Amino acid sequence: MSGETIYKGNKKILGLTTLSFFLTFVVWFNMAPFTSTIKEALNLSKEEIGVLMSINIALTIPARIIIGMLVDRFGPRKVYSSLLIVMSIPCFIFAFGTSFMQLFIARAFLGIIGAGFVIGIRMVSEWFPAKQVGLAEGIYGGWGNFGSAAAAFTLPTIALFIGGENGWRYAIALSGLLCLIYGFVYYRSVQDTPSGKVYERPKRNGAMEVTSYKSMAGLIFMTLPLYGILGLLTWKLSNTSLINSSLANTIYVILAVIYLYNVYKIWNVNKEHLKEGVDKKEQYSFRQVAILDFAYLITFGSELAVVSMLPMFFEETFELNIAQAGMVAASFAFMNLVARPGGGWLSDKFGRKKTLMILLLCLSVAYMGMSQINSSWPLVLAIILTMTCSFFVQAGEGSVFAMVPLVKKRLTGQVAGMVGAYGNVGGVLFLTVLSFVNPSLFFMTIGVAALLCFIASLFLKEPDTAEHSSIVVQDKAGKEAAM
Question: Could you tell me which Pfam families the record lists for this protein (predicted)?
Fold first, then answer.
């Protein structure tokens, strides 16, 4: 059976899965266009609105880890369909909520839908050969990510069309309804792998498999920031009137206990096979995962942070009105449509390590350049530099996920989950930095972090695409054969 035959139908799967991701981002960001409307309609304080915006990403971090494990175990078809269907429930609750607490609970659970990205990474990697997976993952990530911009453009229009004081509620509910319907459509329209290809599953469940004691220590260490960032969010909320110190301390203790339990699971899952010794062909370097974590923290993390602050930055620096500043910020997100697939294509064409290194170095220089922007600059030059920086950031994201599926096939969901979670960690971390420094130092901090990541990327190993292009199929006797 030829590789061309095995992968027949891959464009259909890419399109259907990208639409799934697109809808998750529409729902995940369906509050953003109506922030001021919701604040006024429910008489919420500025602090309460801030909490709703923060909690929207809090559970996404652990959810990406958990969803990564589920997709490796049960397959992307079941997990993506279930996520779309189940997450429509908190979307409806949020749409028709009448109190802050109802909105808070709904928004917290809606953060889980942001983990949908991880599922598609595994699905797309199953349907495309290694030499094409970078471009395919880039299209999936870039066009799916556009769902956040689509929500900003379409939902207010729908609300105006419906009219009345509850127009915003029906617009948000409509996004949930689309999610619900498409969950069933997706389940009936896709399969986890091409016909005849075996879906490789982890040999053990509950934590990521590693292949050396050194890697296990690395996994334990790299898991700590995922809980630390939730502690940081708790600390930020404790500085408001919404969480008192007693509740904050309780949350810290809970996070510490969960982390220690996670450490136990890592040990329990890996102790036996590490003691027996891991066959060389089964080994992989966790260092690859750690460096990709750092790279996505820089790329996607900085994108999250910059998109949040860019309108105000241009508004204050160049005395633009809100609409003009918003257009500049939106253009940063629009670049995803081209840049992220471009980063994946460059990785397929010229090598994954080399491409990622060049993009990290370029975005480091670009962010350092942005740190020098002030009111004396021509506006056009500032926008050109911002767009250039945006291209390197999002191409870098595409380059990261051109490599993720090639670390270890049967662990792709978990690797993608961890790398994706670090992207959210970066967003929270950089926004926290911004709360203490001016925009110039904020951009410089990201630039220096990107330079450090460039140095770390020197220790990446170029994936063997020939090794990952072998396809396991079942012959007529039911025996496995590699092609």
Answer: MFS_1 (PF07690)
